[in-house]
Every structure is written in structure tokens, then in C-alpha cells.
Amino acid sequence: MFPLHFDVGGRTVEVSVTTLLNAGYAGRSQEDVAAHVAELAELGVPAPTRTPCLYPVAPYLAMQADVVPVQHGRTSGEAEWALVITEDDVLLTVACDHTDRELEVHGVAWSKQAGPDVLGRKAWRLADVEDHLDEIALTAWAGGEKIQDGTLADLLTPHYWLEELRARGLAQPGTVLISGTIPMTPDVDQFATTWRVDLTDPRTDDTITCTYAVEVMPEPVA
């Protein structure tokens, strides 16, 4: 298992991920949640029985990658933030949950296991931004076209999820939680060969970015 490394105010923080969790249907507004359910329904994904959802995935899927290999052309990312619990702190960074949309129609949990959670290489201390979290912007581009644009006010808060983690005994060093996403712009092609997600603090103009290329692997020899 490869550790993640974050630049936190010029200091490198290393984290070995032991637990990786993907939140789903985690909009603070139920209208936004319904819109996301409708987006997925267009792709044949059945609606969940409850919201929000929480999907455990293999810890090795948390990575800081420049290239994401995929098996076919129907995969895509999602703009998200991530909580990273360290030995002595809680960090906030950007993330992109890369998902196999063909597999998603058979099971959301399966599809999340089939692709990585790509995290940024920089992070903020949660304590340093918690007084204005709702102002922080979350934006994604697929193939250079803006596909998602919102703020952290659109999603359940980091503190909501920290309480959930504490209740489940998971608020431990090495736990990473990915936030769930915001609605996509209608009629935008999400099946792109490049993805970029930005987390921007308007008070400091500081931006945390994750960006990567998507490469389809050769056909299997079988």
C-alpha cells in the first residue's frame, strides 16, 4: 500500500490509508440529491433505498495519479472533497471519484471498487478553513469543458461526516472519506480523456487541484 503525501502549508504530511469511504447522494439539499439520482437513472443506475450512502472501498484505490487506466470508454470522474485523518490533525483536499459507468448499473458499490479516488497533492488543515467552508468552490472540467460548478454549501459538511465516522469507530488516523458529488451540467459529455477538479478558497485565492488523463487499456488476450 503506497502512502499519500500532502503539502500542508509548505510541510509534507505522509498518510498511509487504512480505510477509504465514498459518500454518495450526499447533497445538503434534497433537490440536489434528487437531481443526482435522476442523472444516474439516465445511465440505468437504480435509486438507493436511503440517503446519504456510505461505500467502503479498498484503501489502495486512494491515489495521487497523473494517469488513470480504464478498460473501456464509459468511465468518468466526479468533483468531490476529501477528509484525511492524520495522527494529529484532519485535512481537507480535493478529490475525483473515477467510476465505471457500465458497472454502475449493476451496483454502485461494485463500480466504485473498479476505479480510483484521485486526490490532490496539497491539503488544508480543516481547522484553518472551517469558519468559511460553505464559501469554498468546487469545480470540475471533463476534456476541458466545465461539467460541475458549486460550493461546499451544496454538500453535507465535513463535520457531519466526522460525527458519522466517530459513531462508527472510524475516526482514526489513516481514514479517508470522499464527500459525494454535486450535480453535473446537463448535456455535457462526461466520458472525456482528461479530468480536472479544483477546490478554491475565495478568501485566499488558494486552489487545490487534481488533474489526470484517462487511458483505455489494450483489449485483453483471452
From TrEMBL:
Query: Which Pfam families does the protein's record reference?
Result: DUF2848
Annotated GO molecular function terms are: catalytic activity
InterPro entries according to UniProt: DUF2848, Fumarylacetoacetase_C_sf
- Name this polypeptide is given: DUF2848 domain-containing protein
Species source reads Saccharopolyspora terrae
